[in-house]
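Hi L.,

You mentioned the student needs an example of a multi-chain input paired with its predicted structure. This one should do, with 640 residues in total across all chains.
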Amino acid sequence: MIPMTNSDLKLFVEFLLNKNYTIHSPVRKNGKIVIREITDSRKFSLIKERPLYSFKNFLLPDKKTLFSTTSDENKNGNDQKLIRKQVLFGITVFDLRAVSLLSQIFEKDPYFQDIISMTLFIGQSPIPEENSFYEKYEENILEHFKFDIFIESRGDQKDFRIFTGSKHGQKMLNEFGYDDFEHIEYAGAVPEEGLSDFHKKLKEKTKLSYGSKIWKDLGKKCLGCDKCAIVCPTCFCFKIYDENNIFNDSIARVRQWDSCFNSEFSEIAGGTKFLKTMEDRIYNWYSHKFVRIPDEYNLPGCVGCGRCADVCPAGINIKDEIFKIMKFKAKKPIAKMSKFKSKTLKKPRTKKLIYEKPI
Amino acid sequence: MRNQYKTYPLIITNIESQNALVKVFTLKPEDRKNIKCATDEKKIIKCWVPGQFISISIPGFGEAPFAICSSPNPCNEFQICVQKKGGLTSKFFSMSVGDEIDFRGPYGNGFPISKLSKRNLLLIAGGLGLAPLRPLIQIIANHAAEFGKVQLFGGSREEKMMLFKNEYGAWRKNIELNLTLDIPNENWNGSTGLVTALFDKIPISKNAIAIICGPPVMFPAVIKKIKKKGVAEKNIYLLLERRMHCGVGICQHCVLVNGKYVCKDGPVFNYAEIKDSPGAI
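Structure written out for the whole complex:
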């Protein structure tokens, strides 16, 4: 197999631009990794670190018009013509995992599916030399991800091995003039064995620990700012409301990202709230990821990217919290509790926030 | 792909004022095919199940779920009971017969009609909670032989807040009506106090299935009371109210801690299904 070189990638970017694709890819800007549109292939180079924001809003826009009184096309919610062909170039395994989950959740959602059908996913492997990556990258995880092309980089090598995950990806590469790729057949989002033992245990422990000190402490610590929900690649809660535009006398029904950290999230007419306290709300957030999504879709609700810990102004680190949940034991005698506490404190804090064992 | 958020037109064919804050709207879909239909094996239900709800929308004012408060026979129109509370319902109150609004649904599971067959029933309603029970009451009134002894325990704040007053006479033919007011006026000769107080005065039929519908604050007190009076936990059903945006189990606004969606798995739950889910009631 002849691998692709960096200059091959630049040419491939050029090729996609000529095909009228809008390319979104991580770039380095003022020392930060952000996702930007790539318009000049000469300046392109593959950034291997994960951007602070995920690719979520390219698939599930933060605000989407469902219906509008301005255009006839939009009246029935069918605005396929307005969706542009896009490439998510360099989407990491974390975000691909999130895309698999969102594709299950929004399986029957025409707005999401229309966008997905116009999107070319070009994935990339994480940097292998960073030993704390939870996803010890192995080829066999790829069969559970929906992608078109996958770029594998090995730490010691400059060049890239190329995989394809769809006919579309194969066609693109063939047209580009590269055929030294390996094809990986999609085996469905859920692995045959279902949830990993780690996630099965985490699910049970999260349920068991309801009302415990873990959540009381988090309830005190959390500010409810919902930054975590914004950067999380799997957070998808939304609200639907009508927006009146007085300038062109039109009405639009819009779907916008919502967050279960907002106190009015669970409010009903008359003012009763069902998620009353911050403790209720943060438990709801965690249990959605570790209990409800696994129960409903047989997939973990957290991909382990650690973005939420990067942005939390209160310093809540999901990895530490998972560690506490996993250690939780119900009705433990008080004498033994102190031992349990000191153990928690001894745990080394690593900079990276990845918790799962290699698959 | 069918757009699950698409709404269909409805014409307001009648408006009946219940009191200053509550009106019953009769709504007729422009095309009956736009109603998602359900049928039970006994063919009592031909179109929607009592306890189901529809999402009503008025362009510019948004969408909200409303329980259908009329019997599914005939099923070419339905009624909803609207209390003036917020923006959408205030707009609703300003509308007249002939105006057009939109809907999607019906959604939700509705009451377990097949399980109620030949059984003694306790229908317990607080305030506006009588509205979702009304289609069930109408079915019972028309198919009395299909059910055992039916008792209705209803509580309202004041006499002027009581709903469907002109129908009580017809209901009484097949249903034992026990009503109470929190704040009685001079003319009231029925019971006073909360609905829970009624159970101390009136014996409830044996081995009954209880269906509770009312404001969230009512549930714990009523459940405690009727359990004391011998109603088995497995025979208690509750209709829960939640904020709903999508109606199809995705947006997460109505989810319970145990992972059940009020819009999709409810709004009617057996008590056993939710009693271990904190905050459900």
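You could point out the following to them. The helical segments of chain B are 87-93, 113-116, 130-142, 168-172, 195-201, 218-228, 271-274. The first strand of chain B starts at residue 8 and ends at 17.

Best wishes,
N.
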